What does this fold into?
Amino acid sequence: MARLLGTLRSSQPVARFQRSCGLFPAAEEGGCSGDPAEGPRARGACNGAGALRCPQGCTQKYIVKNYFYYYLFKFSAALGEEIFYITFLPFTYWNIDHSVSRRMIIVWSIVMYIGQVSKDILKWPRPLSPPVVKLEMRTNAEYGMPSTHAMAATAISFSFFIATMNQYKYPFELGLVAAFVVSTLVCLSRLYTGMHTVLDVIGGALISAVLLVLLYPAWDTIDHLLLTSPFCPLFSIVVPLVLCYNYPKLDYYSPTRGDTTTILGAAAGATVGFWLNNQYAASAYTGQSAQPGLPLIASTVVFVLARFSVGILVVLLTRWLMKSAVLGVLGHRYKFPMGDLQARRRLEVEVPYKFVTYSSVGFTATVVVPRLHELLGLM
It folds into this structure.
């Protein structure tokens, strides 16, 4: 067993998987850049956590021989990034079902916090390069175990499946396979991009599965408390802030604290929005809206796209405005220019900056955008 775990934790299986998918390190290293279709590309070659401290010249080239796998796994890896969270989670709230969205956001925030903290407690390094080809640099500055991409993909896909299987009519097998395929693609993308060992990915998926099993019996109770308890807004703000300010300390800067604050901030703002909507009996999305002269399916698609387009525009505008405003206030308070990256990494700056910005995003997505949809006749 120890030998098996050692093999799964090593870099060689990752390198072999990359080679089998047509991703190879270039024979000659250097600082070249360009589109993958044009030849080798430069990416970080530093090993494990702390890669952001590597010199600028610490790069390697790689060659792609199978572009189907390249774009498939690059897309799959994006399903664990902010761009996916900030689009898919609000989409479910605006167009599918409030209760489904609430459950996914709560599970996602709990799973991600546990995963991020576990990384900085275990401090397992990422795969070595060489032999592994690294396609990302930012996350290479973090520790590896567990893979939070694997955790998030497993949590979101299976919580979505569990929350909808009794509310919507679709084959159980189809939903189960879809959840499995999505989570598997994201897990494999972490091997393809060279960001995790096999054990990191398996560990992340298993931890997420265990947390889902433990949380599922309490789903309805948690949901009821979030909607009805008078202490919900205070709890939703104070507890995440305490967790962020007491995040495990490292000897060097890592993006994990900032990413964790982003996730907990977004969940806090959304949770306050859920509670406020319930207190004031906000209108729910019925899906009954129809455009005269259009078939029902076409009309539904039009309304879905309109809701999403309006909503995501407002959410992105909120994020931009709040980032600028909060950073300006903190810069004035702590006497640093807005472009000072080192100052923005300090605890007293990073936590309020990220938390206020993304709690505003979560609140806007759940309260402001639905009111705007209602005014525009998109409910």
Q: What stands out?
A: Strands lie at 23-25, 41-44, 59-64. Residues 229 and 275 are 8 Å apart (CA to CA). The radius of gyration is 22 Å. The first strand starts at residue 23 and ends at 25.
